[in-house]
Amino acid sequence: MAPPYAASPYVLSLLLLLSIPAVFLLAPRLIPPRTLPTIPDAHETEDLALFRRAVLLSAAPSSSSPSFFRRAHQPKVAFLFLTNSDLVFAPLWEKFFAGHAGLFNLYVHAAPAADLALPATPSFRGRRIPGKATARASATLISAARRLLATALLDDPDNHFFALLSQSCVPLHSFPTLYRTLTAGGRRRRRSFIEILDDEPTLHDRYYARGDDVMLPEVPFDRFRVGSQFFVLARKHAVMVVRDRRLWNKFKLPCLVRSKESCYPEEHYFPTLLDMQDPEGCTKFTLTRVNWTGMVDGHPHTYQPGEVSGDLIKELRKSNGTYSHMFARKFAPECLGPLMKIADSVILKD
């Protein structure tokens, strides 16, 4: 006769079957979901100090800035290059900048470990700023863009426009055409050229990439936006970006590993912030043309040398917005030669 405390095999089997659903229900509560890497606290602290200095300087009375004492100073365009490889298109940009000294400044952000030698040209020489490592599917790209903005705000009070570009971007028009586009309407009517969309098919997955309700209450779903990673901000919006802490505390949170394919913080933070704080001050379209046809692993179409022609440049200029596209990406490094051949006759000839 079996002892009274011995359970029959049938009872044990039943208990095992009943325990399986319990495991699935309790496991997510007991084991935290795996997340992608976070931004180191030391990097956050350094950036916060930089941002505070930029905001304080920008808030100071205009009479305290050197530009106050100039009778005829003009607004400048700050070109912010966010890069992880050599700036092979520097010779083309040098042609673009030629003859316009005093109307622009240039800043390059690259990871400290990157073996990046800046081109030995007047515009690019010595313009690398202290950078930190960046990675896809993380908020590090937001941090890098904010770092560039803050540096440009501190460097020159005459920087009134901030164009964020990558190493694969090329100009589509001459500098005077870009300058007229940005300064049209005068100081009081200056707007930022940033794409802001609220109807993307992937918006739901992107919003919940960090988990359920993580973005609340600061960012409800109906205020969440998507847009291009590259933009041109007016000075007031650049200050707004580096001043922000509230939304940044949400967007810097790491995405869940299972949501990696939906994690593009740099495409959400800037359009969401500006649409919340000053929607009328933004055009809601970008000046940078990107071809997403034939996207590969989240990257847009990369133009190859055989595709470069005057007709391509003219096609890339076309825009659904009020203004023509001023920049385009993404071009393979081997395109430099063909682009230089049509620089004077097409790209810089309006």
TrEMBL record:
The molecular function terms of the Gene Ontology recorded here are: glycosyltransferase activity
Q: Which gene encodes it?
A: ga11819
- Intracellular or extracellular location(s): Membrane
Q: Which residues form the signal peptide?
A: none
Q: Which domain of life is it from?
A: Eukaryota
Q: Which InterPro entries match?
A: BC10-like, Glyco_trans_14
Q: Mark the transmembrane ranges.
A: 6-27
Assigned GO CC terms: membrane
Stated name of the protein: Uncharacterized protein
What topology in the membrane does the UniProt record assign? Single-pass type II membrane protein
What is the scientific name of the source organism?
Eleusine coracana subsp. coracana
Please provide the record's keywords in A-Z order.
Glycoprotein, Glycosyltransferase, Membrane, Transferase, Transmembrane, Transmembrane helix
